[in-house]
Amino acid sequence: MAESPKISLRGVHKSFGPKHVLSGIDLDVGRGESVVIIGGSGTGKSVMLKCILGILSPDQGKIAIDGVESVGAGSAERDRFMRKFGMLFQSAALFDSLRVWENVAFGLIQGKGMARAEAREIALKKLAQVGLTTEVAELRPAELSGGMQKRVGLARAIATDPEIIFFDEPTTGLDPIMADVINDLIVSSVKDLGATALSITHDIASARKIADRIAMIHDGRIIWDGPVAQLDDSGNPYVDQFINGRADGPIKMQVLRP
Amino acid sequence: MIVLNLLAHIGRLFLGFLGASGRLAIFAGRAVSHVFRPPFFPLITLQQMISIGYFSLPVVGLTTLFTGMALALQIFEGTARFNAEGAVAQVVAIGMARELAPVLGGLMVAGRVGAAMAAEIGTMRVTEQIDALTTLSTNPFKYLIAPRLIAGTLMLPFLVLVGDIIGIFGGFVISVNLLHFNAATYVKNTVDFLENVDIISGLVKAGVFGFIVTLMGCYHGFRSRGGAEGVGAATTNAVVTASILILTANLIITRLFFSN
Ligand SMILES: Nc1ncnc2c1ncn2[C@@H]1O[C@H](COP(=O)(O)OP(=O)(O)O)[C@@H](O)[C@H]1O
Ligand SMILES: [Mg+2]
Would the CB of A91 count as within 6 Å of ligand 1? Predict the structure, then answer.
């Protein structure tokens, strides 16, 4: 029997009222693979991640983690899934009542019951990996710039050494050099920890660097899916328009032209 | 036609009310079930107890002090009409312990604590911090809501007990200094007259009100949507619904205690 994929989505639908966001997503992510989702703003990339995480429940379709169905799972089962996951939110979603290091150590202390001193050591190490110092570790999230918050969110996502890591726009809001540091970190998290990664980005350079495979989402479906080496000759006009950043093409932006 | 429209409107309102009550009941049941199931968060519960109990002392103390004073004046004036001015001590004591300390304390805490809770949890909701808790294997019901419900239910009786004492003291100050009552007689009248049930019924009310205030703060915060505006609405709703529920529960509990 073939090994079941780490993450598998089949016909996932999600609407908010009359608005159809996902209309039949099919996607497989293999063990140790790094898949990047690209697509325009508001096409449902974050919603798709939240469906996989179980924060949103899809209206239709199947989502399996390690071959185990997760839609409609009970709370004990959901708990087991969550222990495999690490998530960087697009908005960072740091706990503003806690210090930076306490944010990073949160999953270790509350989720895994580790002692605070030990968890703090690990948190400081993870913060150093994203280029943040011990002084920063003592600050509150509100005292950080957006890019720094993003890096704290990243450190928090990888702190528990999860099996599956979700990165929602990890490099948005960072300068190009820091973006590359973060790309390297994502690559090494996946390679060194043997983690599986599912990332979202608009940053094509970042996508080329961190992806084994790229999938493009448009109109609620995956319209192209292939190895990163084939990105430039995908033969798909949507992908071509997106990676070259052209205003003209099959993807129509809803804007009023002057 | 107009009548039909009106009926349809009333029907929709009624269905909306039923739906909202059902959602609240489900939320309350879920929240309470997490109060009794581990893991527990004693440190966070303690923090909440301090923030609800200790930091509400000034507002509850001032409210009950002035109310006790005004009550003494009113009762003196009112009862003078049938030559019963001597009853001031007794009426102040029973009024504060049974009704005014719990109800006013509950309403003040609803304004102070319920609003702050709805704003804090609502902000956490709209900035995805509650989703982040879930992804870090921490149940928001256990981490955020259960500690607040426990703290509210335990601390409001404490605040009301303090309020009873301060309110009765306020009445005493006015009666002795302004109305020239004999201090020793006033104290003796108060102590002789008050029964356990007067105090206990007030504390039971306080426990229920503390639960209501924290439940409404958490419920509206948890359900808030759509940024700053949504959080603002959650804050208002938390205070308004808590106040109405407090006044309703007050009537019901009073009836249960004193309906021989
Ligand atoms: N909780 C929600 N309630 C209603 N609509 C939502 C919600 N979350 C996302 N949406 C809508 O779904 C669409 C896709 O959102 P999102 O997944 O965040 O886009 P993106 O691809 O940029 O990450 C947007 O139009 C957004 O307005
Ligand atoms: Mg997004």
Answer: no
